[in-house]
Specification:
Layout: E1 2-10, E2 13-19, E3 24-28, H1 36-45, E4 61-69, H2 74-82, E5 91-99, E6 104-108, E7 111-112, H3 115-125, E8 126-129, H4 133-136, H5 140-151, H6 154-179, H7 181-197, H8 199-202, H9 206-217, H10 219-233, H11 242-255, H12 261-288, H13 295-315, H14 319-338, H15 346-382, E9 391-398, E10 410-417, E11 425-426, H16 427-430, H17 433-449, E12 459-462, H18 471-485, E13 490-493, H19 497-500, E14 505-512, E15 518-524, H20 526-538, H21 544-555
Parallel strand pairs: 3-13, 3-14, 8-12, 12-13
Antiparallel strand pairs: 1-2, 1-4, 4-5, 5-6, 6-7, 9-10, 10-11, 14-15
Helix pairs in contact: 5-15, 6-15, 7-14, 9-13, 10-12, 11-12, 15-17, 20-21
């Protein structure tokens, strides 16, 4: 429930805080006074787009605050939990700020909130019924959605739409696969050839192959170098070698150990060097005396190196990187091979179609079962609104299978007749503006009253609720809204005194022309309310007669 709405530098309103009552709140005022400003402000607080023109002339920005009571509102609690926001108070405060430069900001309980989030929350707090709702009646989709809501079969309707969308997705995928089947086959052949091309390299470590080839190609020269190094380290000739010289140095150091500790340390290091030289000579001796490698092994390495060079030029990649690239090629090939063909998807498409038909058939039966009861409810509400001979029914016409869609297999029209002896026809063909207006109001009210009684009800807002009605009909509309206000909060703009008199709270919008024009919001009761109802009934000049009439309207309120 909306507790209060505070406006600061908003359009024609400089500053005002308005407390909202439970039940039916009505807004009245002369044309151009600014009655729609409250609805505009409320719309901004539930996530609608802003316009810099809403900022009061000369002000840097406008601020709107809306405070809601959400105690025991499980839908709001669930929304806060889903969006990981803390709800530790029974009230929520929405703030919306508009700058004259066109920027807009929003806060929820003092924390920034995105417009998308605010719109989702706003749908749970406020339900605005536009003055153009009667035009929606002319759209078949609106009638179908209203019927589903009234019959409480939205879940079945959603399942039907989901089934149809799944069927369409499979069809589009199959068409896409069929259109690129030739390209797929060509790509698979290319990948297979590329993988086969470098297959000999895949079982090797190409870096090791290069290293081994480099060594074996120069083995004789390397063996000669090993022999020469061995001769320098240790030989049996009269030529000096490292081992002989090390032995002499060790002998000299050992003779001086008792004189200086330095010679002892030097001797230890020389012995270690002697051991390492011994290991090196053994290593070089084995290398120098090894057998020459198998020529076939060298040929195998030559072939691999040549292949690597050729493929490197062909694919413009270093040979060592081709192996990594081949893994990517294999992954692409596996994906293409596992992709279902358009023929293979035919069975999936047929199953999806059958699933859709099951859902659509169940939806049609549910609509057909609920439609007569709903029509009786419509007629019962329309008759008191100066439509005593109103008749209506839902007509279902099966489409061609090619025309089935997310709403099912049938076109649904709301047929209507307001006159005795006249056949019912689609509403948009025969209903007058006034009849459409009353039908729209009744449909909106029925949808609200037919909603889940255990669910939290958002505030209802009716913009220009009395379009196309007057006199006794307006009286009945007012009584209807007052009755509805006993179970939930309403806010409505009206030009009819008969409607306004039924309100639990009457808000008057007045425009003052001082240095800077501004609108003022006043909650009126007593004589002020009588005068406003008199103005609405009798025009600019208020007389005792119009006042008496206004008092009678208030007296008639039940």
């Amino acid at each position: 429930m909306l507790l209060s709405l505070t406006l600061h530098q908003f359009a024609l309103i400089a500053q005002h805080e308005l407390s909202m009552a439970e039940g039916f709140n009505v807004i009245t005022g002369e044309t151009g006074a600014g009655k729609s400003l409250l609805l505009d402000a409320l719309s901004l607080c539930i996530g609608e787009r802003a316009d810099s023109a809403m900022v009061r002339h000369g002000a840097a920005h406008a601020d709107i605050y809306a405070q809601f009571d959400v105690q025991d509102n499980q839908a709001i609690a669930d929304w806060f939990a889903a969006h990981e926001r803390l709800l530790d108070e029974p009230e929520v405060l929405v703030r919306r700020q508009l700058s004259s430069s066109g920027r807009s900001k929003a806060w929820l309980n003092g924390t920034p909130v995105s417009l998308a989030e605010l719109k989702g929350l706003g749908a749970l707090l406020v339900n605005i019924h536009s003055q153009h709702a009667q035009q929606a009646l002319l759209k078949p989709q609106f009638v179908v959605q209203w019927l589903d809501a009234m019959a409480q079969i939205n879940t079945l309707a959603d399942n039907t739409a989901t089934s149809y969308q799944h069927y369409q997705q499979l069809k589009r995928r199959a068409d896409d696969i069929a259109s690129r089947e030739a390209q797929r086959q060509d790509r698979m052949l290319l990948l297979q050839n590329q993988i086969a091309d470098i297959a000999p390299l895949l079982s090797t470590d190409y870096a090791d192959v290069e290293a081994e080839h480099e060594e074996l190609s120069n083995i004789e020269a390397l063996m000669t170098e090993a022999s020469h190094s061995l001769h320098l380290l240790d030989n049996d000739t009269d030529e000096p070698d490292v081992m002989t010289l090390l032995g002499q140095a060790i002998k000299l150091c050992d003779h001086q150990i008792d004189v200086s500790a330095t010679f002892g340390q030097a001797s230890e290091q020389l012995h270690l060097a002697q051991q390492q030289i011994t290991e090196v000579t053994s290593l070089l001796s084995d290398y120098a005396e090894q057998q020459l490698p198998d020529p076939e092994r060298l040929q195998t390495l030559d072939n691999l190196i040549s292949l690597g060079h050729r493929l490197s030029r062909k694919y413009n990649l270093p040979a060592i990187d081709l192996i990594t690239e081949a893994k990517a090629w294999q992954q692409q090939l596996d994906e293409l091979e596992n992709e279902p063909s358009s023929d293979a998807m035919a069975e999936q498409i047929e199953q999806a179609w059958q699933d859709y038909l099951v859902q659509a058939t169940a939806l049609h039966k549910a609509r057909a079962k609920a439609a007569p009861v709903i029509c009786q409810q419509l007629i019962a509400q329309l008759k008191p609104l100066a439509l005593p001979n109103a008749r209506c029914e839902f007509a279902s016409t099966k489409r061609d299978s090619a025309q089935y869609n997310a709403q099912g297999c049938y076109d649904i029209d709301l047929l209507f007749s307001a006159n005795v002896g006249m056949p019912m026809q689609p509403l948009h063909k025969i209903a007058s503006g006034g009849e459409l207006s009353r039908m729209a109001l009744v449909m909106q009210v029925l949808q609200v009253t037919n909603a889940d009684t255990n669910a939290a009800k958002p505030m209802l807002v009716f913009d220009e609720v009395d379009v196309g009605i007057s006199g006794g009909t307006a009286q009945v509309v007012g009584e209807l809204l007052r009755t509805l206000g006993q179970t939930q909060q309403l806010l409505a703009i009206t030009h009819q005194a008969q409607v306004a008199a039924q309100a639990h709270q009457h808000i008057l919008v007045q425009k003052h022309h001082d240095k800077l024009t501004q609108s003022e919001l006043i909650i009126i009761t007593g004589s002020a309310q009588v005068d406003e109802l008199a103005r609405m009934s009798g025009g600019v000049i208020i007389t005792d007669v119009t006042r008496d009439h206004a008092r009678s309207l208030l007296t008639d309120v039940k």
